[in-house]
Amino acid sequence: MTLASFPRGFRALVIGASGAIGSAFVQALTDDAGCGRVDALHRHSAPPIDFDREASVAQAAEAMTAHGPYHLIVVASGVLHTPAFAPEKRLADLDYGRLEQTFCVNAFGPALAIARFAPLLDRHRSVLAVLSAKVGSIEDNRLGGWYAYRASKAALNMMLKTAAIEVRRSNPGAALVALHPGTVTSALSRPFRGAERGRPPADAVRDLLLVIDRITAQDTGSFVAYDGQRLPW
Ligand SMILES: NC(=O)c1ccc[n+]([C@@H]2O[C@H](COP(=O)([O-])OP(=O)(O)OC[C@H]3O[C@@H](n4cnc5c(N)ncnc54)[C@H](OP(=O)(O)O)[C@@H]3O)[C@@H](O)[C@H]2O)c1
After folding, report:
1. How far is the CA of 169 from the centre of ligand 1 (A)?
2. Superfamily grouping for domain 10-225
3. Which of 50, 69, 67, 68 is nearest to 58 (CA)?
C-alpha cells in the first residue's frame, strides 16, 4: 500500500523496530514506493534506543536530526511481561518492580521519545503515532487486572494528549495520536493466547497505516483503533 496523504519520498522513523508490530511497520514502509527513507531504531540499532537508559533517547534523536525532518514517526515499544514477571491478576500481586519496569517502557520512555523526537517532525504534514492499547482506556475498563500495563498505557495516553496540545502551538502541521492495534500475534501477546486470538502483525500494520493516512492535523491528541474508531480515554 501507499500512504497517499504524505509527500512523495516521505521519511519515516520507527522506534521499537525489533518488535513484531515495529518490524512490520518497517517492512510495510520499505515496500511503499512513495516512502523515500525508513529509519529503524531499537535497543540494538545504531544509534540504540533503550528506555532503561534515559540518555539513549536524546542521543538517538540528536543522531537522527540530520536524516529528518520526518513525516511519520511510530513508537512501537512496549512491555506486558518479562522473564521476571507476568501482569497482575489481582491487587495483591502489585509490587514496585513490576510497576517501575512497565511504566518505564510503556510510559516514561515513549513520553521522552515524544519530547525529543517531536522537534524532528515535518512542519507541513506529519504524524507521530504511539502504540497504546485499548486496555489503557479508563472508561472501557470492565475486566480489571493487568494493573501496571493498564495504568502505564493510561499514563502514556495522558502524556500524548498533553504533548499534542503543546506541539500544536509550535507545529500546526503535526498530528500526535495514540493507536490501538487490536490483538496481534507477538511475543507480548503469546502467553495470553495471542497466537490464536491475534492477527498477523502485517495485517494490523496495514490497517494502522490506513488509519494514519487519514489522520489530519485536526485529529491531533486523539486515541484511535486499527479500524478508525475513536476510543474513549
Ligand atoms: N500484540 C498485541 O496484541 C498488542 C495489543 C495492544 C497493544 N499493543 C502494543 O503494541 C506495541 C508493540 O507490541 P508488540 O506486540 O509488537 O510487542 P513485541 O513484539 O514484544 O515488541 C515490543 C518492542 O518493545 C521493545 N522494548 C521492550 N523493552 C524495551 C526497552 N526497555 N527499551 C526500548 N524498547 C523496549 C522491544 O525491544 P526488544 O526487541 O529489544 O525486546 C520490542 O521492540 C506495544 O506498545 C504494545 O503494548 C500490542
Report:
1. 30
2. NAD(P)-binding Rossmann-like Domain (3.40.50.720)
3. 50
